[in-house]
UniProtKB/TrEMBL annotation:
<feature type="active site">
    <location>
        <position position="221"/>
    </location>
</feature>
<dbReference type="GO" id="GO:0009017">
    <property type="term" value="F:succinylglutamate desuccinylase activity"/>
</dbReference>
<dbReference type="Pfam" id="PF04952">
    <property type="entry name" value="AstE_AspA_hybrid"/>
</dbReference>
<dbReference type="InterPro" id="IPR050178">
    <property type="entry name" value="AspA/AstE_fam"/>
</dbReference>
<keyword id="KW-0056">Arginine metabolism</keyword>
<feature type="binding site">
    <location>
        <position position="157"/>
    </location>
    <ligand>
        <name>Zn(2+)</name>
    </ligand>
</feature>
<feature type="domain" description="Succinylglutamate desuccinylase/Aspartoacylase catalytic">
    <location>
        <begin position="55"/>
        <end position="245"/>
    </location>
</feature>
<comment type="function">
    <text>Transforms N(2)-succinylglutamate into succinate and glutamate.</text>
</comment>
<protein>
    <recommendedName>
        <fullName>Succinylglutamate desuccinylase</fullName>
        <ecNumber>3.5.1.96</ecNumber>
    </recommendedName>
</protein>
<keyword id="KW-0862">Zinc</keyword>
<comment type="pathway">
    <text>Amino-acid degradation; L-arginine degradation via AST pathway; L-glutamate and succinate from L-arginine: step 5/5.</text>
</comment>
<keyword id="KW-0479">Metal-binding</keyword>
<feature type="binding site">
    <location>
        <position position="64"/>
    </location>
    <ligand>
        <name>Zn(2+)</name>
    </ligand>
</feature>
<comment type="similarity">
    <text>Belongs to the AspA/AstE family. Succinylglutamate desuccinylase subfamily.</text>
</comment>
<dbReference type="InterPro" id="IPR055438">
    <property type="entry name" value="AstE_AspA_cat"/>
</dbReference>
<dbReference type="InterPro" id="IPR007036">
    <property type="entry name" value="Aste_AspA_hybrid_dom"/>
</dbReference>
<keyword id="KW-0378">Hydrolase</keyword>
Length: 332
């Protein structure tokens, strides 16, 4: 009888990355003469052994454990590169964020890891994710401290709900102009539909890398959450191709310009009395009109301040003190 794989078997490269098992790819890069380090669980850096200065690229996936599409995409990209290691043209740091949450298929275990990258953690201190963020912060600093001026961080996520733009990115406004332009150019080459310029940290990993390491950093949302191994990666073929070119130092192909939005309000949940007027299933980038109520929180009423604002990441279920949504306006 022919042996057959169960239909739900994961490709080995995807299983390995989801379990933060770098054994095979690390060995391939070592065999090709690279200096490979594993500074913390789920983190691998790959650099030329001769110490030459190259662009530094940090790729992170699984910062939210149920956002599995990017894990699959990056697993395939790194697997292919490790089989042709001399094509790697950058210093690479690969970070699998919330390993326990990936295993559990949940956004997080105790608290949202992507709110821990801030000086004051308040009630988030002491959670499982706070310790993980500390390890990521230390490894990230070590990686960028030794790097040259060209620094990238692509933190790959997926949205919880549907979006008017199936792919979009959040870009910290404080990134230096030339680097931001290069980043938005890359996002365009990756056919990312929209970019949100973010003036203020919400404690995210990408904002941290922009603020503390001068990286051209972005949270990139690729479709919606899904089961590991069952994501339709054909939706992200342009992103995968642009990523391959970035890692191989090849020129990008022009695929278009993302629509540009600017964050104008951050909706914070201040108490258990917080209520959102928009439903949980409201699509990202749904337009609301001036004066419409977005949310109430006791005496605080969040209303639309511009003729039109679009709601992104509406989520009343976050912890008290955290962001329950963003309001954006179109600028280009
Ligand atoms: O769909 C949602 O509500 C959340 C998707 C997600 O995890 N988004 C990131 C964005 C981070 C940023 O603002 O840069 C997050 O909320 O952490
Ligand atoms: Zn996420």
């Amino acid at each position: 009888m022919l042996s057959s794989q169960p239909s739900n078997a994961l490709p080995e490269a995807v299983r390995a990355l989801a379990e933060a098992d770098f054994g095979t790819v690390a060995q391939r890069f070592r065999d090709a003469g690279f200096a490979v380090a594993l500074p913390a669980k789920g983190i691998m850096t790959v650099k030329p052994a001769d110490g030459q200065t190259r662009p530094a690229v940090l790729l992170s996936v699984g910062v939210h454990g149920d956002e599995t599409g990017p894990i699959e995409m990056v697993a395939h990209a790194v697997e292919a590169l490790s089989r042709a290691p001399q094509q790697l043209a950058v210093d690479l740091m690969l970070c699998v964020g919330n390993i326990d949450a990936i295993r559990a298929g949940k956004r997080f275990i105790d608290a949202d890891l992507n709110r821990m990258f801030r000086a004051q953690r308040g009630a988030l201190a002491g959670t499982a994710e706070a310790a993980r963020a500390d390890a990521m912060i230390a490894a990230t600093a070590a990686f960028f401290d030794g790097a040259g001026p060209v620094r990238w961080h692509l933190d790959l996520h997926t949205a919880i709900r549907a979006s008017h733009y199936p792919t979009f990115a959040v870009v910290p406004e404080l990134i230096e102009q030339d680097r931001k332009q290069a980043l938005v150019g890359w996002l365009g080459a990756a056919a990312i539909g929209a970019v949100i310029m973010n003036p203020k940290s919400s404690g995210t990993y990408s904002y941290h890398c922009a603020e503390h390491h001068g990286a051209a950093a972005s949270t990139v949302e690729l479709g919606r959450i899904g089961t590991l191994g069952q994501n339709d990666l054909s939706q992200f073929a342009d992103v995968a191709a642009a990523l391959d070119r970035l890692l191989r130092g090849e020129p990008q192909r022009q695929a278009g310009q993302p629509h540009v939005f600017k964050q104008v309000q951050e909706i914070i949940k201040h108490s258990d009395a917080f209520r959102m007027s928009v439903g949980r299933d409201t699509q990202n980038f749904t337009a609301l009109k001036r004066g419409e109520v977005i949310a109430t929180d006791g005496d605080t009423v969040y209303t639309v301040q511009h003729d039109e604002e679009l709601v992104v990441f509406p989520n009343p279920d976050v912890r008290v003190g955290l962001r329950a949504g963003l309001m954006v306006v179109r600028v280009a």
